[in-house]
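Exercise 3.2. Students should predict the tertiary structure of the chain below and write it as structure tokens, then compare their answer with the key that follows.

Predict this chain's 3D structure.
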Amino acid sequence: MPDAVETRNVDLRSETPGRERGEPPIDGPLATTDPMAVCEVSDADANRVARTCARLVPEATTIALADTFRLLGDPTRVRLIDALSHGELCVCDLAAVVGLSESAVSHQLRLLRSVRLVRPRKRGRMVFYALDDHHILDLIAQGRRHVEEHTPGGAPPND
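Answer key:
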């Protein structure tokens, strides 16, 4: 049994500076008209909040995870990872696969290397890249299944 956590009922809207209890949610581009998006009651369950907070991912891990997802938010980087999922490739081969200059690909690979998604190997004057580990393949596969199952015929959504 975890240690007792001091809890209190929190009215999230009344603790937001400049807002009075019972005011509607924020207006503007973040506002929603979806009735499922907000609670109709503004009194948080302190025990549930405390239990959830105790189980949250540590802050440093949250930041590293967000950095990883941020870098995966670029189609070129996703294509590079997809290409490397089939095996190690040199920068010039990767450039040909994704249709960019070697300089542009090198820049993208440096970003992916910064979050340990890819690793370099130098052989003479050539640099080869491979996925740093196969966890990223699982992440990409899960994302792909998610996208394909929520679109007609499994095709990517149109913008």
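Discussion points: The longest helix spans residues 135-149. Residues 1-21 have pLDDT under 50 and may be disordered.
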